Amino acid sequence: MDRHRPWKTLTSREVYKADPWVRVLDERLELPNGKIVPSYHRILLPDYSMVFPVLEDGRVLMIRSYRQGPGEIVLGFPGGGIDAGETPEAAARRELREETGHAAASWMSLGAGLTGANVRGAKCHMFMALGCRKIAEPHSGDLEEQELLSLSRDELAAYLQENRFVILAYAAIAARALLEWKNR
Amino acid sequence: MDRHRPWKTLTSREVYKADPWVRVLDERLELPNGKIVPSYHRILLPDYSMVFPVLEDGRVLMIRSYRQGPGEIVLGFPGGGIDAGETPEAAARRELREETGHAAASWMSLGAGLTGANVRGAKCHMFMALGCRKIAEPHSGDLEEQELLSLSRDELAAYLQENRFVILAYAAIAARALLEWKNR
Questions:
Q1: Are the beta carbons of B64 and A4 separated by less than 8 Å?
Q2: Which of A78, A147, A164, B138 is in the most buried spot, having the most CB atoms within 10 Å?
Q3: Segment B137-165 mean pLDDT
Q4: DSSP letter, residue B83
Q5: Contact B153, B61 (CB under 8 A)
Q6: Residues in chain B closer than 8 A to A33 (CB atoms)
Q7: Could you tell me if A125 and A48 are in contact, meaning their C-beta atoms sit under 8 angstroms apart?
């Protein structure tokens, strides 16, 4: 018996919606073994792109700002929602420009992942932007001012190893990017 | 002016709830600059623990299973919700035992992060379990059978570098753990 067949969605009921921010689905599922799951929640959030920006001098450009999720001031990376018709990489370029005023000489994908294994959540697209330099003033249009700062590679590695990131996606892109560097 | 004061929550209305799986809050916020945000969503999901299990021979123990979030069969790590009164590390030990039948010789924290920067989501607690050996048969009680397999450190590094993880938390713990190894 193949233990890995997909589950079957028998019914999917939208129980909450606030366009374009969140949709909550309450689904009735049938497993491959015939078992019925009467109520299983999925939460659909907008996909977004996130950037690990490396400056021309090799330091990493970061953002310090208040985030409502943890309710505290955190150190993180530029990023934001993907506009309609925009590719994830185009969104990454735009967010880097808007939030930091920087442009990159080259880009590479660091993969994409869903923030929820069971509920789905959002898909986070991660990019490394190399050779970043300032071309304009930031004008993010976001709700709050953001403070730009830069860390050396060693400072960032220490920050990660001391488990100081409070947002999972920031830890993910930092670890993925540092590993990429070490593999070269 | 301090640009990094917290936002003020003026009202918080619960617009959807399915205990214990999900709570959706629609909040009215006031920013430090006085601006009012009339509707800002927060989504509270149960916190969970996740384990990066290293076997006695140095290979990494992983799980292949169908996940409803992406709607596909994925490679990942053991983990699950934290029971009432349980510490994150105790939940990690229990999930490792239940899902894989393994126990570890020693444990270390790889940090914790929220799956949402704006909405909060769940807090994911990451642990590295060293010297894992099989002590029983798995009996996870989860909805589906799970296939256990192991990867060498190089195989896992290649899997990560090829951007093959589809769940962000799995990529995060893999990158964080591989980096920890390289730092030793």
A1: yes
A2: A78
A3: 89
A4: P
A5: no
A6: 144
A7: yes
The residue length of chain A stands at 184
- Residue B4: what pLDDT? 72
Residue found under tokens 């990131």: A165
- pLDDT at position B142 is 63
Give the 3-state secondary structure of residue B25: strand
B176: part of which helix (H) or strand (E)? helix B168-182
Q: Order of strands across the sheet with B120-121?
A: B8-18, B22-30, B36-44, B120-121
- pLDDT (mean) for B81-107: 97
Cβ proximity of A42 and A69 under 8 Å: no
The contacts of residue A181 (CB under 8 Å, 6+ apart) are A153
Residue ranges of alpha helices (H) inside A9-134 are 88-100
- Window 78-107 of B, Cβ < 8 Å to A: none
In the prediction, which pLDDT does B139 show?
A: 85
Identify the helix (H) or strand (E) that includes residue A134.
strand A123-134
Burial class for B2, CB neighbours closer than 10 Å (0-12, 13-18, 19+): exposed
Would you say how long chain B is, in residues?
184
Is B153 an 8 Å CB contact of chain A? no
Q: Which of chain B's residues have a Cβ under 8 Å away from the Cβ of A72?
A: 6
The first and second tokens of residue B85, run together, are 């009164």
Pairwise CA distance, residues B95 & B112, whole Å: 17
CB within 8 Å: A4 and B147: yes
Residue with tokens 């990660």: A160
* DSSP H or E run through B44: strand B36-44
Whether the complex's predicted ipTM surpasses the cut of 0.85: yes
User: Around Cβ A33, how many Cβ atoms within 10 Å?
Assistant: 11
Query: Chain B partners of A114 at a C-beta cutoff of 8 Å?
Result: 69-70, 166-168
User: With an 8 Å Cβ cutoff, are B24 and A26 in contact?
Assistant: no
Mean of the per-residue pLDDT values for chain A?
94
B62 CA to chain A: closest CA distance, Å?
15
